[in-house]
Amino acid sequence: MNHLYESMFIVNPDLGEEEQEKISDRLNATIEKNKGLIIRKDDLGIKSLAYKINKKPRGHYFLLYIEGPGTMVPEIERFLRIDENIMRSVVIKLEPGVKREDLEPKEEPEADSAPEPVAESPAEAPEELPAEPAEQTPQEEVTE
After folding, report:
1. CATH for 3-103?
2. How does pLDDT run across 97-119, given as a tens digit for each residue?
């Protein structure tokens, strides 16, 4: 039975793009070899650490959402422990209520098109609203 897992790991920030790709490719191979599937991979960028790890004040963070059997987790943890360029890592099993659809990447083009009409509507609305209530208020007082 497949479960959903979340994994975060911190890579040495001094690595180049090629070396990061090699680590990513080897991790993907390890996951696929153990009948797993990467749902989403997020590059969170370089961030300051709360304390130095391996004499480094910064680290490059990555977040993975993985689906696979429980036997896959020890192999992933082993890979993350062995690679000397990975400074810290953690793999956790997600709650049973979390669905795969919730973890899949959201489509960005839809989000870009939505704010444009919203930005135009509020700009027009405030001009009209103050004029109308001001006119209605005196009429209501006169009729009463």
Report:
1. 3.30.70.60
2. 888 777 877 766 544 444 444 44
Residue 144 has pLDDT above 80, yes or no: no
Instruction: Tell me how far apart the alpha carbons of residues 38 and 15 are, in angstroms, rounded to a whole number.
Output: 23
Domain limits, CATH 3.30.70.60, in the chain: 3-103
Nearest to 65 by CA among 101, 25, 33, 97: 101
Who's near 12: CB < 8 A, 6+ residues apart? 54, 56, 59, 60, 85, 86, 87
Instruction: Answer yes or no: are the C-beta atoms of 32 and 61 closer than 8 Å.
Output: no
Q: What is this structure's pTM?
A: 0.69
Q: 38: phi > 0 → left, psi -120 to 50 → alpha, else beta; which?
A: beta
